[in-house]
Design goal:
This is Peptidoglycan-recognition protein. This protein is of the alpha/beta class. It has 5 helices and 6 strands. The two termini are about 20 Å apart. The protein binds zinc ion.
Length: about 200
């Protein structure tokens, strides 16, 4: 690991995933996290978000978008880092945010028990392309294989637990058809107990 990569990641090593390319923080030109807090895994909850900002379909454009979103979250919002664990582009790649083990800033009240994937774009009126949707599924499968996501995980949209349109009406309708969608009727989801973090030593 070179020094630039070390400065940019400041986290645990990022294993590769099958069927999806992960663009690391060093590759998209991340600023370092201001502070890092780890959570225990495997988490039992996965959230789907959209960024409600620009779509992107090449690594260059998605990397630029990642830098824009990180600046927005770190500078304007004052958060430690880009909020989501991973972001997904319509280039079919996953972009490393807080990655698997770091507590994010994506879903108020649930950040320490969930991993969040956010598809770059606004999916109120149309769906993300298949490349992006396939990348989300591949990342969830990878998270299970790596022991970061429980095989019996429940999947929600951001709006299931917060007053927001996120992840956009069309994308929300789609994820409600996915096998692991966890909400039954109008009952609010119940937050699981956080798992203590162990460094794996
Ligand atoms: Zn959201």
């Amino acid at each position: 690991m070179n020094s630039l990569e070390k400065d940019c990641t400041s986290g645990l090593p990022l294993p590769a995933c099958e069927n999806v390319t992960i663009v690391t923080r060093a590759e998209w030109g991340a600023q370092p996290s201001k502070e890092i807090n780890y959570m225990g895994t495997p988490v039992g909850v996965v959230f789907i978000h959209h960024t409600a900002m620009s779509e992107c379909d090449t690594q260059d454009r998605c990397s630029e978008e990642m830098r824009t979103i990180q600046r927005f979250h770190q500078v304007d919002r004052g958060w430690d880092d880009i909020g989501y664990n991973f972001l997904i582009g319509e280039d079919g790649k996953a972009y490393e945010g807080r990655a698997w083990d770091r507590i994010g800033a994506h879903t108020r009240g649930w950040n320490d028990v969930a991993i969040a994937f956010s598809i770059m774009g606004d999916y109120t009126k149309h769906l993300p392309n298949d490349a992006a949707l396939n990348a989300v599924q591949a990342m969830i499968e990878c998270g299970i294989r790596l022991g970061k996501i429980d095989a019996d995980y429940k999947l929600y949209g951001h709006r299931d637990v917060g007053a927001t349109e996120c992840p956009g009406q069309r994308l929300y309708e789609l994820i409600r058809t996915w096998e692991h969608y966890g909400r039954v009727g109008s009952e609010p989801p119940v937050k699981p107990t956080p798992i203590p973090f162990h460094s794996g030593v």
